[in-house]
Amino acid sequence: MLIGLAIILVTAFLWSILGFLIVTPFTIFGLMFVLGKREWIKMAIISVAVTVVVFLAFRFLLGIEMPMGFLG
User: Fold this and answer.
1) Residues 9-28: pLDDT tens digits?
2) 36: phi > 0 → left, psi -120 to 50 → alpha, else beta; which?
3) Helix pair 2-18, 20-34: axis angle to 10 deg
4) Which of 11, 14, 59, 72 could be 27's S-S partner, Cβ–Cβ 3.0 to 4.6 Å?
């Protein structure tokens, strides 16, 4: 449980530096790993897919800019 909290804290720190699109897939992947998932390919696909869907939803449906870090 503390590892999950550490992942969230690192994500919060790196989000404005590296941006949503870079940090979020690693966060989702790490949290799935902590929760016991071990299907690496599926974890990677889900991490990237969730990140893209959330980014597009915030950007185009809600009109909210996500932190882009050095990309933006």
Assistant:
1) 999 999 989 999 999 999 99
2) left
3) 170
4) 11
